[in-house]
Design brief:
Pectate Lyase C-like; mainly beta; 2 helices; 27-stranded parallel β-sheet; Cell shape-determining protein MreB; 456 residues
């Protein structure tokens, strides 16, 4: 009978041997060693390493890929963690990850528990050598001192490939405000390939990008407790085709921090650093569909906005659908953020917007009369061509608030079935020029592909 073993990663290359009871190989055929199907991994990986789909790899605490090593992970490989250690895989700068799954064989990071819970897994962290603005001095989440610094000068830096990867039950809160997210990217450069990623049922943010210039397509955030797309420290990449879906009852423990959970939360720098460090956080985004709780029964009081742009952030979000935000749909938070919108540097363009209370909010301004909600509405709906709706049903998506099985496909006659606009910075060749608004092509619903999981 085939036995299942856990081997320590450091013992992976040691052969196993067996012999007969009478220790006489001449009279008894050799017995094959038991197959290795599970392996523990801990500490550092300092040379090129290959993980294969016939073995399940269990992260024990923090695992660092270091010393310019490349970790290659085959399609269909499973990487797991138990709640006693909340394993974190960190690809440190100079090293690479080559995790190229496929639609039918995604690479899956998940819980090893029989009853999986958010936080059983720590998360995946990739650290590159692109530029950031120094807002965060070190990596979050309790990493060791040797691996805390990040940032560099090479915006074309290459940290490898992350493709068809699913991250489940992540999130490790070391201290308040010091957490590991589902996927954390620290100053990762544009040479890195990132597409077809899902982060689900995480205890903190789904995605947090600290500086860097990498681009991405096809990102899914499903039922994560805090923010789904959190950009800061000068992130200045491009993203197209992304989904954010919120579980109305699930937020992380905010305590007395005053924090809230949002579909988007984007910052440049903290209050103490004056908001204006460069490079400025300035994502270029198109074709997102973001679904908030929409005041469903049992909704958590800690839900906030569809979009919270604050602390000196700039942004372009175009051809998007944002609906179901609790406190507002679009919130501009502080003077520099509002000034960038007034000047046209930032914009919510050619999009569809709905929220429970009000589509628009402006707060925490120091300059009286700079901008209010009515003035923001005029800019968004006049200059930027976005439409707001009182009722979510008027956007005419098929079943967006069915959390167990969301259907984001536009119905016939939906205002989402119009040509996207890709002018200015969005004319870049990175962006596909779509004939629809939102993440989902009415003629080709990629959100139903086998690599995406709902219902957790």
């Amino acid at each position: 009978m085939k036995k299942t073993l856990y081997l320590l990663g450091s013992l992976a290359m040691i052969g196993l041997a067996s012999c007969s009871k009478n220790n006489d190989p001449g009279t008894n055929p050799p017995v094959n060693p038991p197959a290795v199907t599970k392996m523990d991994v801990r500490g550092k990986i300092t040379k090129d390493t290959h993980w294969t789909a016939d073995i399940t790899y269990r992260l024990r605490g923090y695992v660092y890929v270091d010393n310019n090593a490349t970790l290659t992970i085959d399609p269909g490989t499973k990487i797991v963690s138990n709640k006693d250690s909340a394993g974190v895989l960190i690809i440190y700068k100079g090293s690479k990850i080559n995790a190229a799954g496929t639609a039918d064989k995604p690479i899956v990071f998940t819980s090893a528990e029989a009853d999986p819970k958010p936080g059983n897994l720590g998360g995946l962290v990739i650290v590159g050598s692109a530029t950031g603005n120094g807002n965060h001095a070190v990596l979050e989440g309790g990493v060791d001192t040797e691996h805390q610094p990040f940032g560099g000068t090479n915006d074309a830096d290459n940290s490898g490939v992350l493709q068809y990867v699913r991250i489940e039950y992540a999130g490790k809160a070391v201290n308040p405000g010091d957490e590991v997210n589902g996927l954390s990217m620290y100053t990762v450069g544009s040479g890195t390939k990132v597409d077809h990623i899902e982060v689900l049922r995480g205890l903190d943010d789904a995605y947090e990008f600290f500086g860097g210039s990498f681009n991405a397509k096809y990102l899914v955030a499903y039922n994560n407790a805090d923010d789904d797309f959190d950009f800061d420290d000068g992130y200045h990449g491009k993203i197209q085709y992304a989904i954010s879906v919120k579980d109305p009852a699930f937020t992380d423990n905010k305590g007395t921090s005053g924090d809230i959970s949002n579909n988007f939360e984007v910052d440049n720098t903290t209050d103490a650093k004056g908001y204006l460090l460069t490079p400025n956080t300035f994502p270029l985004l198109s074709n997102f569909t973001a679904i908030g709780p929409n005041n469903a029964t049992g909704v958590s009081a800690d839900y906030g906005y569809g979009m919270r742009w604050r602390r000196g952030a700039k942004f372009i979000l175009a051809n998007a659908i944002v609906m179901g935000g609790q406190k507002a749909g679009l919130d501009l938070d502080n003077d520099p953020t509002a000034q960038y919108y007034i000047a046209g540097t930032s914009g919510l363009k050619n999009s569809l917007l709905q929220a429970v209370t009000s589509p628009y909010k402006v707060d925490k301004l120091a300059t009286a009369g700079l901008l209010d909600a009515a003035g923001l509405k005029t800019l968004v709906e006049g200059r930027d061509g976005t439409k707001s709706f009182t009722a979510a049903a008027d956007i005419m998506l098929t079943d967006p608030f069915n959390n167990a099985a969301p259907n984001l496909l536009p119905k016939a006659g939906s205002p989402a079935i119009v040509a996207g606009k890709f002018d200015g910075s969005l004319s870049d060749s990175f962006f596909d020029k779509t004939n629809y608004i939102g993440a989902i092509d009415p003629a080709n619903d990629w959100s139903k592909a086998s690599w995406i999981v709902y219902g957790k």
